Amino acid sequence: xxxxxxxxxxxxxxxxxxxxxxxxxxxxxxxxxxxxxxxxxxxxxxxxxxxxxxxxxxxxxxxxxxxxxxxxxxxxxxxxxxxxxxxxxxxxxxxxxxxxxxxxxxxxxxxxxxxxxxxxxxxxxxxxxxxxxxxxxxxxxxxxxxxxxxxxxxxx
Amino acid sequence: xxxxxxxxxxxxxxxxxxxxxxxxxxxxxxxxxxxxxxxxxxxxxxxxxxxxxxxxxxxxxxxxxxxxxxxxxxxxxxxxxxxxxxxxxxxxxxxxxxxxxxxxxxxxxxxxxxxxxxxxxxxxxxxxxxxxxxxxxxxxxxxxxxxxxxxxxxxxxxxxxxxxxxxxxxxxxxxxxxxxxxxxxxxxxxxxxxxxxxxxxxxxxxxxxxxxxxxxxxxxxxxxxxxxxxxxxxxxxxxxxxxxxxxxxxxxxxxxxxxxxxxxx
Lengths: 156, 265
Ligand SMILES: Cc1cc2nc3c(=O)[nH]c(=O)nc-3n(C[C@H](O)[C@H](O)[C@H](O)COP(=O)(O)OP(=O)(O)OC[C@H]3O[C@@H](n4cnc5c(N)ncnc54)[C@H](O)[C@@H]3O)c2cc1C
Ligand code: FES
Ligand code: FES
Known about the structure:
The structure holds 2 protein chains of 2 kinds.
Chain A: E1 2-8, E2 11-17, H1 23-30, E3 49-52, E4 55-58, E5 71-73, H2 86-93, H3 103-116, H4 122-128, H5 140-154
Parallel strand pairs in A: 1-5
Antiparallel strand pairs in A: 1-2, 3-4, 3-5
Helix pairs in contact in A: 2-5
Chain B: E1 5-7, H1 12-21, E2 26-28, H2 34-39, E3 47-50, E4 60-63, E5 66-70, H3 75-80, H4 82-87, H5 89-96, H6 101-106, H7 109-115, H8 122-128, E6 132-135, E7 139-141, H9 142-145, E8 160-166, E9 170-177, E10 184-193, E11 196-202, E12 209-210, H10 212-220, H11 245-264
Parallel strand pairs in B: 1-3, 2-3
Antiparallel strand pairs in B: 4-5, 5-8, 6-7, 6-8, 9-10, 10-11, 11-12
The complex binds flavin-adenine dinucleotide and FE2/S2 (inorganic) cluster (2 copies).
One FE2/S2 (inorganic) cluster binds next to loops of chain A.
């Protein structure tokens, strides 16, 4: 067992975890933040993507102890009260989802993509989302959502 | 996963000492290969010794005609490094083509070449450029380091600390990526070095290898045409549901020609 201290969606959290506990299980089971999904559990699909110190990482392939001291943001930490985060707003406006299973991971990956490159080209969007699989949309509306989010964020 | 203890050493020396004292402990760098393997219970360890965050293993520097990349430098770091981009742009592009952004944030050059997956990208760059693998104990030439399917010259508890790349005149790397995993179904690295041409192939056989006929032909004439009709022994190529031996051999020829084109700019 190890003691970890994190800032989780802006709140200080400390907990004892088994060293083998995956971050995604810590979030879903111990913290009841079930918005972060497990799609494949084999590091392929990106449904489990969360932000660790601003960087999009696959939480099914990180140990909770490994991120001790980090700032973690999950999909639950994106909206500001009733106001959606611009990336969430864009997915909603552009119908960037169907079943929604991949969406939390997509939103986190897109947030990091736009942090690094606020005005990505279509090619850069496709390359930037290679770690996130969607079985429903065919990606067309996801790409639209990223472009829309980029506009919303530029407009402040 | 089976149970283990997580250990965060403060230095390479401390990690080496810990491994020497604990025979069942394993190194973890980015964890992008090790953790998935442990989750499937295909591997286990008494301790995971996490060297990935060690600052002393993360630096990327130019030392004269050498580019030195620390073993814990991530693919993301290498892809975006100005030092790498100026010295060996083909290597920066190779790193940019590994996996996906999330994997590139965590996965490292040291973990990749310690694992020596037969379809991984870095082995082609390290062998193609005739680099030297530096461990906490010694230096190993790439030609001696890679020994086939998931096998290297590393001994028990030996820690890769850096890779030293001689800066070539020019180089190119192109892979045919498996559409689902991104791993190479054939990837060819071509380098025009100060001391000759080197051609390394990954993804085709049971480990990275040099293609001697292509090296000789390109040394005479650095052009894709020089590769036409060259001998390529495909008898040891891998064959699976994705591709037959002959198909992989054909991909290898096409990737080699594209790598030469990239090298020519
Ligand atoms: C979805 C996905 C897609 C991928 N796509 C590609 C791809 O297209 N091309 C590609 O080349 N790779 C690909 N990879 C693999 C990726 O590049 C990994 O980063 C790499 O194989 C292992 O690096 P790591 O730092 O994560 O090593 P780890 O998983 O931490 O370690 C791997 C092995 O190396 C040992 N080790 C680690 N560090 C050291 C060290 N310093 N000295 C000695 N031994 C050490 C460990 O004990 C372990 O046995 C992919 C991985 C995933 C999950
Ligand atoms: S659940 Fe983590 S990548 Fe699929
Ligand atoms: S919306 Fe269903 S998986 Fe993406």
